[in-house]
Every structure is written in structure tokens, then in C-alpha cells.
Amino acid sequence: MFGPFRLTNPLSGGLLWKIPWRLSRHQKYRHRERLRRVDSTVATLSAALAKQGQTMKKVERWKVEMPTEQEMLPKDKYTVFDRKVKRYRKGIHKVPKWTRVSQRLNPPGF
Amino acid sequence: MSYFRITLMRSGIGMPLKVQGVLKALGLRKRMTTVYYPVTPDVAGQIMRIKELVDVKEVDRPLTKQQIRSSRRPDPGYYIERRGAEALNKYEDV
Predict the structure, then answer these.
(1) Which pTM does this prediction carry?
(2) How many domains does chain B have?
(3) Is ipTM over 0.90?
(4) Which residues of B touch A54 (CB under 8 A)?
(5) DSSP assigned state of A71
């Protein structure tokens, strides 16, 4: 029952990878840290450009459109819209490369 | 004149080719590589494309590769009073 050769679903044959349907609280914590890191990068960029008296469309647009980590709802931090899922939300950890992409907004109406 | 200090924290493996191309253009080939670029809108645009992968700080002056290496090297735990070669020269003179 215990030990390295215990009979579990992945060991008893076939390919079986399971992604839990929700994030653990440590995953959520690290995800918030990553969101904050991106926020600080964008803030650094805009501050450095403003010091030189310059602005950039891409940075300004991000600041206008994207909510910061503090402004985001928990629903938007940890889940994303998916049209194929019942009730249209799935965990953000099901998104491919989810630790390295920004996904903050919902389609209009959701 | 200020500079962006850009450090690649997360690898670009598996990211879209445009992202990987930006990494290559900035000279970020491995994780924890640090490069310095002057603060200009074009560099800022490149950083916007890779903002999830890098750590960006604004600094006054760029460091050379040797300076980065020596700053990362831990304290050796000793200091040199006198070089062996100097001591030897003194004996040879006598």
C-alpha cells in the first residue's frame, strides 16, 4: 500500500496526468507575486520614460486598459473565460504557459 | 543618461517566435543574463513584449561583464597581505 511501487492510477498502466480543478493557496500566492512583478516592470518603464519627457503608446495603453493586481477581482486572478466550459470559467492554471503569459481581461459581457 | 538593467528571470523556451526573437535581439540567451540598454521608447517597446520574463530596473550607469561577475562572486574569506612573488624578489636581492 505504501512505498515506491504502490498501486496508483498512473502506475497501473497508461498515461494519466491530472490537473486539479482549482489552484492551491501556494499557487495562488505565487501567481499574485508574478502579477505584481509585471505591474512593477510596467511602472518602471513608464517612470523611466517620463523622466526623459517621453511617453509610449504601448505602455500608456497597458496602464489604461489593464487592471493592476490590487484592482483585479479574485475571480479574474484565478480563473479565465472559456466558452467550452460549463458556466464559462476555468482555472487559470489550465491555460498553456500560464506562468509566463498575461491574462487579465474578460471578453465583453463576461 | 539612464539605463535599463534587464535580467532574464524566466526562460523563453516554448514562447512564440516573436518573443524569442526579442530575447535574441536584446542578447538574452540564458536565464539570469543581465544586459544594459539606454532608456529609449524602442527599448521600452522590446521590454513590453517580454515583460513577464524579465526583471527591469532603471540604473544610472551600465556595468561591464567583469563588474557583474565580480559583484556576484562571494567574499573569499581572506585578504592578501603580500604577494609571494614580491617576497621572493626580496630574498633574491639579498
Answers:
(1) 0.80
(2) 1
(3) no
(4) 40-41
(5) T
